[in-house]
Amino acid sequence: MRIAIVGGGPGGLTLARVLRRHGLHATVYERETHRTARSPGGSLDLHPESGQRALAEAGLAARFRSEARPEGEEHRILDPAGHVLVHHRPQPGSFSGRPEIDRRVLRDLLLDSLPDEAVAWGHRLVGATPRPDGGFRLAFHGGRHVDCDVLVGADGARSVVRPLLTDAAPAPVSTMVELTIDDVDRRHPELADLVGPGNLWCVGGRRILSGQRLGDGSIRVGVSLPADDRPLDTYRDRRALLDVFDGWAPHLTALIEAGDGPPVPHRIAAMPVGARWAHRPGITLIGDAAHLMPPVGEGANQAMLDGAELATALAAHVGDPDSAIRAYEEPMFARTRAVAEMCDRVQAMMLSPTAADDLVRFFTPRPTESAPAD
């Protein structure tokens, strides 16, 4: 059984790794030319029920614990004046919550668990055609072709595989602008203290200014705004970006001023909640290709769980990939619908006029009711 996985993100690599643990081989076709061709992004909090569970099924739980940062779970929420609204401090050294791991470190962890030949670098898919005897012929940029029996689209938000199964497409939900501050402890100790070892959210006025501490000593700064029709180039100018936060405390907007290099804006999109497709033999989707959600901490976790569950289904139905895909898809649709609904609610809450009050309620534990007296 020739299994082709299009996309070498956390979901696709988890799928390849768990398949290999079951004695099944797959090839991951990745558009990047090598593992360090571009920055994989910021940090992820891996959840016990999804991302950590997938790594356990991949046999990588111990390696994850050696690389993850439990202290990265610390989370601060401030208002525009800099008042602390929420300060979550994790239990020191505990992996029972949602420890952080840099995307680069996670990707290396997964890549190092696979033989070199498992990933075909520099393969950008441009089309897939059904074969008369089943399976698909894949066409890559540059004229290369490959045949497969099972095609898995793990190729993210702009999936080339997705249109083979559904007309559903992502729609914009917000605008994100990113900056990076390198060597922050030495160059900007006051900002290192502000963000702490984990995540900082400054919320108010339907905008968010965030900071995320990475394991390499940098801070990833993010600005989240409601989706609008203004050109993205509007936000490439640092002065214009600072104007968006006019009136906010200067020690907060210092995160924007300290960014190395120009701001990098892009649209954030999401698939319609509950999007699904009619089963088609020999092909399926995982991760953002299947259920792109607002970026509130679930995307990579669900992608990795997709990969682990699809691998388990394929291993349980060797010789019958059609049954395996059916066994994977229906539970995945149910699971990710509930998660996507939650992500939509959180996204709307964070960019609402009442975000500060809403987030305080969301993150404040409810008191346990006392038992009635006898």
UniProtKB/TrEMBL annotation:
Annotated SUPFAM superfamilies: FAD/NAD(P)-binding domain
Residues that, per the record, bind NADPH: 38
Keywords from the UniProt entry: Cytoplasm, FAD, Flavoprotein, Monooxygenase, NADP, Nucleotide-binding, Oxidoreductase
UniProt keyword annotation of Amino-acid biosynthesis present: no
Molecular function in Gene Ontology: FAD binding; monooxygenase activity
GO CC entries: cytoplasm
Compartments in which it is found: Cytoplasm
Any single biological process term in GO: response to antibiotic
FAD-binding domain ranges (all copies): 3-171, 282-338
Catalytic activity reported: a tetracycline + NADPH + O2 + H(+) = an 11a-hydroxytetracycline + NADP(+) + H2O
EC category name: oxidoreductase
Tree of life domain: Bacteria
Cofactors (names): FAD
E.C. no: 1.14.13.-
Entries under PANTHER family matching the protein: FAD DEPENDENT OXIDOREDUCTASE DOMAIN-CONTAINING PROTEIN (PTHR46972:SF1), MONOOXYGENASE ASQM-RELATED (PTHR46972)
HAMAP family: TetX_monooxygenase
Name assigned to this protein: Flavin-dependent monooxygenase
